Amino acid sequence: MSGDRIELLFLGTGTSAGVPMIGCHCEICESSDPHDKRTRPSVMFQYGGVNVLVDTSPELRLQCVSNRIDHIEAVVYTHAHADHVMGLDDLRRFNAARPGHPIDVWADERTHRALERCFGYAFVEPDPASKLFRPHLNRRFIEGAFEVAGRGWTPIPLLHGDMPVLGFRVGRVAYCTDVSKIPDESYPLLENLDVLVLDALQKKRHTTHFSLEEAVNQAVRIGARETWFTHIAHGLSHAATNAELPGNIQLAHDGLVVYSESTRD
Fold it and tell me: What is the CB neighbour count within 10 angstroms for residue 35?
């Protein structure tokens, strides 16, 4: 990988229920197309030999095994809903692979409060004599732009229904999942993108996520070189939906890798 190249690996592109859903036998939940199998949403930014995970989905272990992820240098959180945080305990395997190297966890204050309620044990300095197998994590608070492994990360304020959440821009790649409205002040942060990732739940309008039509309209307005949709429900067939979309605006799928060679804004 080029030192200037940013790769974005889609670990999961589904909704909070995943696809297929429990108890559903619709055409897409029973599809034989592997692109229609969607685990809970998460991505990995990869640059300069560094892996930075965005969110820890409930399928984190399976996602990392499937994509041969052997190390993680940091984790960044968009918000604290269950489908984005409940895989946190699986980070202990990455600690075990690099003893004595705690993993930095970047999140806003609201998200850190939720992580503390669920996973407070993961942020306690470990006792060297203890045989407990648990994560060893460092809290890092997002209060503006920050750096991970020497590269700038810009938080992008978004709304998920009435809930403030964060998207992130790294170089000319932006990841904006779980969004139903982009505040006016956030659009300048989305200019001159090579890659935009955007929430597109389903065709029908929803109170906390962009519909497919709304996502397409946002993609056209933002004007990235390419746009990939994520957080996709079982109402959207991968092949049929992509056939209806413009060539530079498509549904992502689990395991997809996209990249940007341009890291300067």
Answer: 17
Which of residues 264 and 117 earns the better pLDDT score? 117
- How many residues are there in the chain? 265
Q: Show Cβ contacts of residue 244 under 8 Å, excluding neighbours closer than 6 positions.
A: none
Contact 234, 24 (CB under 8 A): yes
| CATH, domain 6-259, list 3.40.50.720, 3.60.20.30, 3.60.15.10, 3.40.50.20 | 3.60.15.10
All residues at 6 or more sequence positions from 177 whose CB lies less than 8 Å from its CB, including other chains:
41, 55, 78, 167, 197, 198, 199, 230, 231
What tokens does 206 get?
Answer: 């929803």
Residues 25-36 have pLDDT tens digits of 999 999 999 999
Question: What residues form DSSP beta bridges with 151?
Answer: 148
Enumerate the domain spans of the chain.
6-259
Inter-residue contact 57 to 83 (CB < 8 Å): yes
- Rounded distance, CA 46 to CA 101, Å? 19
For the chain, how big is the Rg over CA atoms in Å?
Answer: 18
Question: Looking at this protein, which amino acid is placed at residue 234?
Answer: H
Does this model's pTM top 0.85? My answer is yes
**SS3 (DSSP) at 66:** helix
Inform me whether the pLDDT recorded for 126 exceeds 90. no
Q: Beta strand 151-160 with 6-12: parallel, antiparallel or unpaired? A: unpaired
Q: Are 255 and 66 in contact (CB under 8 A)?
A: yes
**pLDDT band at 1; cut points 50, 70, 90:** very low
